[in-house]
Amino acid sequence: MRQQFTSLEAHGFESPTTQSAFSSSSISSSSSASDRRLKALARHLVDASPVMDSHSQNPNDTVSPSPTSSAFHADSVFAHIVRAPEDPILGVTVAYNKDPSPVKLNLGVGAYRTEEGKPLVLNVVRQAEQQLVNDRSRVKEYLPIVGLAEYNKLSAKLILGADSPAIQENRVTTVQCLSGTGSLRVGGEFLARHYHQLTIYIPLPTWGNHPKIFTLAGLSVKTYRYYDPATRGLDFQGLLEDLGSAPSGAIVLLHACAHNPTGVDPTIQQWEQIRQLMRSKALLPFFDSAYQGFASGSLDADAQPVRMFVADGGECLVAQSYAKNMGLYGERVGALSIVCKSADVASRVESQLKLVIRPMYSSPPIHGASIVATILKDRNLYTEWTIELKAMADRIISMRQQLFDALRARGTPGDWSHIIKQIGMFTFTGLNSEQVVFMTREYHIYMTSDGRISMAGLSSRTVPHLADAIHAAVTSFA
Ligand code: KET
How far, in Å, is the centroid of ligand 1 from the Cα of 238? Predict the structure, then answer.
């Protein structure tokens, strides 16, 4: 029996070394899964032995299990697969969905909710969709590899400004991609193939998907100091030092506005210093613009850091997403723009972007990009969009004030002014993972383990519940 187990182990039924590479939660879930597999196997072997004995009394005639033997037919060729941990952000929603509590609250993923706690489809999006449906001349043909031309032009204008010289001089190439994530990935793959420096510096901390996207694209990921937990503000000195000692030509990932997860952005004066330092060292800026309009409520103000880097005539990459600012999360609509020095370079860059995209997903989907183009090209819809966007940003700002006031009213220990100072969808509360676990267990409030809460998931009705939970967490676990 033991020999059979050993032979089965050799076929990968247990792999403690692979498991050790994963987090403790994945170890416990995968080891219980492998326990289950072993028990099932033991049952199977006990049941099987009399059958084998009846076929042959001679132990030498017994065939040991091999991948083609009957013992294996019952099991999967994927039986050795170790259960992967849930995604640190999207996994929060998975856990939330399983919780039957009526007071549960999902503050994990950065997705806007109304005061009633419901997802919001913008009025302008409904109108644009209606127009698209009514237009019988529209067809469902494949888009070109680079996406909808009109959408690409309008997206570049939105982020770089309608009067951008780079656009007028035709030195920007824009390709429609699968939301912000897809734009970052395509940009990363392009750089890994064609750029001379393969190191990308990302802020510490940053959106959890950044290191994975760029590593898989083939870049080597390093971090630069960004946030100082002591001041709950920008570690500007650390940032300048780290970028100052980066190798010439290195790529630097910058959050265009509303830094995720900290909600801390450089001031315009600080951006100017960052720009000068980066240009003096020929560092290549790669902007991630996932929240244009969500930081200040103004699309132009939020694009200012990007526009400063384009105004100096230098090169950069920009990944845009319409997930948050148009509420088009599931439509997966985004764009990658690469600003080059000349029209000729831009067109050659675009030809290579097509070679990145075609084997990846061939061409992007048509619906979301058509909605965006319909809104961006129509003066009335555009104006209405800016009003709806401002209303979303304002509701988030009012949630900040309400949460801050509620903690003050409870006399919760600590300085909570960062809740009203931080910008964008998230508050980086400073709560530790133990406090987060406590709030989820006792109050059914779901958030990422780094203490980030999505203010967009909060409403006047749920603020007191959250304030109670934070108060209890802070006073129970100092
Ligand atoms: N960049 C940043 C900084 C970002 O926060 C997100 C999404 C994205 C890009 C990508 O979004 P896309 O849907 O691909 O356009 N962040 C939220 C959702 C997620 O994690 O996917 C979040 O942090 O909750």
Answer: 25
Does 288 participate in catalysis according to the annotation? Answer: yes
306-355 per-position pLDDT tens digit: 999 999 999 999 999 999 999 999 999 999 999 999 999 999 999 999 99
Q: What whole-number distance in Å separates Cα of residue 321 and Cα of residue 308?
A: 20
Phi (first) and psi of residue 164, to 5 degrees: -65, 125
Q: Is position 324 annotated as part of the catalytic site?
A: yes
- pLDDT, tens digit (0-9, with 9 covering 90-100), for 284-302: 999 999 999 999 999 999 9
Beta-strand pair 233-234/227-228: antiparallel
Q: Is 358 exposed, middle or buried (0-12, 13-18, 19+ CB in 10 A)?
A: exposed
pTM: 0.85
Angstrom CA distances, 146 to 140, 142, 318, 372, 449, stand at 16, 11, 15, 16, 37
Dump the DSSP string for 382-450. HHHHHHHHHHHHHHHHHHHHHHHHHHHHHT-SS--THHHH--SSEEE----HHHHHHHHHHH-EE--TT
Pocket probe for ligand 1: among 207, 226, 372, the residue whose CB has the most ligand atoms within 8 Å is 207
Rounded-to-integer distance, Cα 389 and Cα 394, Å: 9
377 CA distance to ligand 1 centroid (A)?
Answer: 25
| C-beta 288 within 6 A of ligand 1 | yes
